[in-house]
Amino acid sequence: MANIIEIKNFEAPELDIYARQSENQLRHLYEPKAGVFIAESPKVIERALDAGCEPISILVQQGLWSEETEKTISRCGDIPVYTAAFDVLTKLTGFKLTRGMLCAMYRPKLPAPYDICLRAEKIAVLENVMNPTNLGAIFRSAAALGIDGILLTDGCTDPLYRRAIRVSMGNVFLIPWTFLDSGEWPKDGIQFLHRQGFKTAAMALSDKSVSIDDPQLAAEKKLAIVLGTEGDGLSEQTIADCDYTVRIPMSHGVDSLNVAAASAVAFWQLGRKSSGS
């Protein structure tokens, strides 16, 4: 049975977790537990619940209760369900984008990189992708286009930041992901991938690049698609250490795509399962 509590004042302490805690503060709340993230909209909250995430509280705009809202709340057990009028909630940054519903949840325990790779054939490796909008878009494309998991270097932004979750449409909960262990990247990371049976494909422009439709790439049963940070792309060392350097053919003198757009093209072409699988 939902424990419904009306909030009339934006300064109420019950709203701190939604309105006044930074992303970094949320990540470290309730230590030694893994911290907190905020899921936005019933659809995203449902995907987080499906993935086993544990809810702490819910915030719903008055007047927006619906069958979808009731269904989501019914899955969350006896947690506080805060409600407030629209003029209170509009003070929350970005609230208009949430479809009237937020849920604070404990961060799930992340799998080990080995577990991500164990049964995967095609994975993405993200090197220092820092923009949460790009990160969310990459996750959405990965889930849609045949990628089995995502590994991130420690320079990447957190996939459970609110904007990354929102842009991904909750797909951060549908595709397995984790951060690579804190060994040296790219050396230790690429050696780890090789030990798991993966060939590595650096998405970059160079004199040694092969086209993304090269038959050799299609023949690789286990392939890790390595994508770099916004602007600078992959480091020279990463490119040198990978088995392939892969380019997307361009027209009209355009030299490259944004990392999120490039990921969608790469996942479509390279994420397809091999015919022998």
Mind explaining what this structure looks like?
This protein has 277 residues and is of the alpha/beta class. The protein has 12 helices and 12 strands. It has helices at 16-19, 23-27, 42-50, 67-74, 86-89, 113-118, 132-144, 162-168, 187-195, 215-219, 236-241, 259-270, and strands at 3-7, 36-40, 55-61, 80-84, 101-106, 122-126, 149-152, 177-179, 199-203, 210-211, 223-227, 244-247. The chain has a 7-stranded parallel β-sheet. Strands 1-4-3-5-2 form a 5-stranded mixed β-sheet. α4 (67-74) links the parallel β3 and β4 (80-84). The longest helix is centred in the middle third of the chain and has 13 residues, at 132-144. It is elongated. It starts with a strand and ends in a 7-residue tail after the last helix. The model has no long low-confidence stretch (mean pLDDT 90).
Radius of gyration using CA atoms only: 21 Å
Helical content (DSSP H or I, runs of 4+): 25-40%
Question: Strand-and-helix sequence, N→C?
Answer: EHHEHEHEHEHEHEHEHEEHEHEH
Low-confidence stretches: none
Number of strands: 12
The class by helix and strand makeup works out as: alpha/beta
Sheet with the most strands?
Answer: 7 strands, parallel
Distance between the termini: 47 Å
User: Number of helix segments?
Assistant: 12
- Overall pLDDT: 90
Principal-axis shape: elongated
| Strand content bin | 15-25%
Strand order of the largest sheet: 8-7-6-11-9-12-10
